[in-house]
Every structure is written in structure tokens, then in C-alpha cells.
Amino acid sequence: MRIDFLKNYYTFLLVFLLFFLNVNAQNKTIHNDQFWETIDGQPIYSQGGGIFKFKDPKTGELKYYWYGAYYKEAELYRNDPSQTYTQDHFVAVTCYSSSDLINWTFEDHVFERTEALKHDQGTRWMGRLGVLYIPEMKKYAMLIQHNAGVLIALSDSPTGTFKWHRKLDMTDRIGTPNTGDQSVFTDYELGKSYLVYSYGQGRNKIYLSEIGVKNGEVDLLDCTEIFRGKGREGNCMFKYNGKYYVFASNLYGWDSSYAYYLVSDHIKGPYLPTNNMLVTPGSIDDYAHITQTGFFVNVKGGETETVIYCGDRWSNFAGNGLGYNQWVPLSFQEEVPYFNSLNSWMLDENTGVWQVSEDNNYIKNPSFEADRKAIPSSVKPIQEQLKGWIAKVYQGNTIVIGQKESPQLNYFNTTEDRKYVIGEKSLNIEDNVAFERQVYQIVTSTPFVDLKDGRYTLMAKVKSNSRFKNLEMYADSAGLQQKAVISDNDGDWHTVIIENIIIKKAKVEIGFYAKGSPGASAQIDDVSLIKMK
Which parts form a coiled-coil structure per UniProt (predicted)? Predict the structure, then answer.
């Protein structure tokens, strides 16, 4: 009797533990603002690509396959983020596989630069790519920008070696030989794939072409113009709740921008508002979590469907933070997408449900990397304040666009600075006259992310000189202010912390107050506000 009881008890315990481990295995964290690794700790190098669902050639299991460009500069920047690189040297297209979109396994370099050199010794730029399955040929096709054209490579397997098939000159279709950024979108419900791309010069038009077979070769079967207006790049799309969404970014090179979108009931349009892309709500305060639009992944779980925005952060070429891939979940208010700018969140691929992680940093633009120019800026984008932050001048020179006496709100970090802080820029508080200034950010709940009441820790890195009468970091919630006086003034970077900040009514103002003599100078970087456990 005792033995049977123990057998039943341990059986129950084993089942419970397996259930517990399985539940926890399905809730994993996607942590942005850092360099990502595979499950065996190897660096993930994948930029300007896409994720597609194919059957594993060995097991027949449907899996996610992530393809992207590997540039030599990505490796160099990861090893030493104090350096930004001006050139791009393509190494290969990488392929990673996953069953949950979080734990990735490196498969192979599926297209090497040497393969392109066999057919074009002048090969330089390669990127902006996607992969689809061609049932008529029983082949997998990769479409990738190659110099001034679109290269198509074929493979027998999603993880196999892709070989040069042909190269498309787009002149007869759109008037330029090249596409101005592109991605591959697969409509799994219709079983069709499309190339989404813009006009090669000025990029003021966006096109959509179905990918198929013509005369025994992989080709673009048609060409539909779906947008004509301001220049756009980073073209990509997804389907949600029966509607098609086309996204794109501004022409800011390697730097980040708002995420713009159009929506349609039909794949070929019309896309509305006609020729007037809208800014995605939630992407404004930090230029879409300091990214350029890249691609999307739909997670259709047992409870709900989540669309993941997969943004490219070209930090190796822009120096704008850590990590090359910043993924956030979208929410929807009817047909309007909402960008949830999160530093850390959890996804259950089985259910499709996402939630904010406990270690999420609620500060927007925390390392002051969103702004590509010295602010205030009189050149595009014309801008008076730092993204996500408000600077108030009580005494001293006022902030005026184009005025020589106006204080500069951001500081361009030196190579030495970047050994201690993240990215090319930091907050700048200084003036050549006596001044009093406050720089702050109001953190509150959004329509889809709650700022929960509780205790938080505010942290920042600061360096300053000795000409301040008062320099402090503060947090103010529900009338209760907590502050830390910044007294280190030796010109080195120091970490300033305020613990046990009590946030009530889902709102807090955090910031920095400064009162300085002429020549007082402080730089602030890497601000975080994280809930205490």
C-alpha cells in the first residue's frame, strides 16, 4: 500500500514538474537593446532579412527559418562598440531555425559572397532579402539586392546552399535597374509570395510583384504600384485580420525613423490613405525603438494572433546602440496598428499571447540614440527637442532651431566615452552663460502596456565638471519626489541610482535638474527605470 502510494506520488510529481517546465519553456523573453545569441551561445548575425515557415527537411516539422545578411562590420562592432563603420562588407546570408522565435539554432551560411563573385566580380552591396518555396520547381528561392539589380538564387532545401539562378534588371518594370529596399512577404492563406520594393531613385514609389515561374525561371509575374509620394525605404508588409499592411521608413540611411503604414482590404490595393503613409502610433517617442522597418512575423497561437514588428538597427553603421534586431509586438485599435516600444517582453508561441517582462526598461530613447543630428536641428528632420524628452530653460540661452547661441541638447560621445556608455550620443547639459535647466520624461501607461504601481529603480550614467551649483536626478510620482544629488565632478563617468521609487497612479516624471555657472557641463547616458522584484 505504501509502495503504491509512493509510486502514485512520484508519478504525480514527475507529471507536475514536466508540466511546469513545459509551461515555462513556452514563456521566453525577447530582450532588445543587446546583441543576440543562438542557443549554444554563438553570435547571431542577421540584418535586412526575413523569417519564413518551412518544413524541416529532416523531421517534416514546420519551423521558423530566419535569413539575413552577415556583414563583417557586425562582428567588429559587436566586439568593440566604441567604433562605428562607414563601409559595408557582405560575408554571407545566414540561416537560423527555431520552433518558438526565441531559441535559435545556426544552420549555415546558405549563400556565400564567393558564389556571387563567380558570376559578377564587381559584387559589392548585397542585402535586403527573403526566401520562398517554389512548388512548380520544388526549389527554395532567395531574392536579394545585388549591386544594381535583384539576384535570385535557388536551393533544394531551406538550409541548403543557394546557387545563382539569375539576376533581374528592373528597368523595364519600374525605370531603374535596382529596387530601393525590398522584402519578401508570403501570404500563407493564399499560398503566394510577393516582393515589396520601392523605386530605385528617390524611392518615392512603392511596388508589389507576385513571385512565380515564367518560361522555366523564377521571375516577377506582375508589377503594381501601390504608393506614390514621399521617399520611403525599408519596405515590408504583413496580413492581419483580413487586411494587408504595408510599412516603410524615412530616407535616413542607416539611422532610425518613424514607422509609416498603409492598409488595404486587398493585396493589390487600393492602399489607404491614398499616397499618404501614416505614422504608426507608439513609434514617435523613440523612432520605433531606434530602428528602421525590416519585416514582420505573425504568430497564430491557440488563443490569439500576435504580429511581431522586426526592426533593423544598423548600429554597426550608425553607432546607435546595441543589437541589430529589435522586435516588438503590435497591438490594434480596430485597423490602426500600435507600436509597443518595449525593451523586454515575453512571448508564448503556442498561445500567441505576449506580456511585458519584469525587467523591462520603461524609458523611451534611454541612451539618446534616436536623434541622428545635433539637436536642435535645422536639417531633416527639423527638430527642437530630443525624441522622448523635454528640455525646459528657466535661465540661460533658449533652445531655438538655427540660432548659434542655442544650447546643443545632445553630445557626440568620443571613442573613450563609448568604452563606458552606449552609442554615439548622450544627453548634453551645458551653456556658456549662467543657466538653470530641467530635462525630463513623463512615463505612464499606454493603451496596451501598463506602468504598474510599485517600487522602481532609476539609474543613469553621468559625467560632469565642477561648475554646477546644483545637479540632480529625480523621480516624481503622485506628488512624492525622490532625488539623488550628483556630486562626482571629476569628468569621469559615474553611475547614479535612486532605489525604491514609489510609483502611484501609473505615472511618474523622471529627469535631471541643473543649475550651473558659465561653462558648466554634464553628459548623461543609459537611463533606465525598472520595476523592483
Answer: none
Q: Which helix (H) or strand (E) holds 460?
A: strand 454-464
How far is residue 48's CA from residue 69's CA, in Å, rounded to a whole number? 6
CA dihedral 403, 409, 415, 416 (to 10 degrees): 120
**What sign does the dihedral 11-14-18-19 (CA atoms) show?**
positive
Contact criterion met (CB below 8 Å) for 271 and 248: no
Alpha-carbon distance of 186 to 308, in angstroms, equals: 15
Note the pLDDT of residue 381: 86
pTM over cut 0.90 = yes
Residue 80 amino acid letter: D
Burial 124-163 (b: 16+ CB within 10 A, else e): eebbbbbbbbbeeeebbbbbbbbbebbbbbbbebbbbebe
The answer to whether residues 356 and 342 touch, using CB atoms and an 8 Å cutoff, is yes
For residues 257 and 293, what is the distance between their CA atoms, to the nearest angstrom? Answer: 8
CB-CB contact of 316 with 85 (8 Å):
yes
Predicted confidence band at 266 (pLDDT cuts at 50, 70, 90)?
very high
Report pLDDT digits (tens) over 6-36. 344 344 444 333 333 343 444 489 999 999 9
